[in-house]
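re the bet — no i am not wrong, look at it urself. input seq straight from the record:
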Amino acid sequence: MELNKPEFKQEVREQPPELPPLLEKHQEFTVWVLAKVRKFPKDLRYSFGSHLAQNSLFIMDLLTEALYIGKGGKRNAVLQNISIRIEQLRIQLRMAYSLKLINGGALHYAVSCIKAEGSMLGGWMKAGRRYAGSESEQMSNKAGHYNG
């Protein structure tokens, strides 16, 4: 009598959904930040390093939130908050360099990443303003007003 052996099918893992470029870039940057913070001296790892890492993670949260809220004032407010957080992150990284927690090459890499993210964010904010402008123009046209 032969026992039935269960057949094991090899699971094909699906690729994770593609992230928008800004979110993907910040995710890679956040992984880099977390790796750097892990190497900070113990006395600064749990104070300054933790704050630096949390700020980068919070930016990820805000970027995700901005993806899912509708266009308009609420999204613009979140994007503005992201812009402020990115600037705070830039300042914190310069402090990390001053404290000799990261070297000049790491600072250069971080600043170039933040600059690229800032440019992408600026484009997103600009697109939102264009959308808001065209929306108000459409509403005026529906109401019989001319904006020309």
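see?? Residues 132-148 have pLDDT under 50 and may be disordered. told u. also Helices lie at 21-38, 42-68, 73-98, 104-142. so pay up
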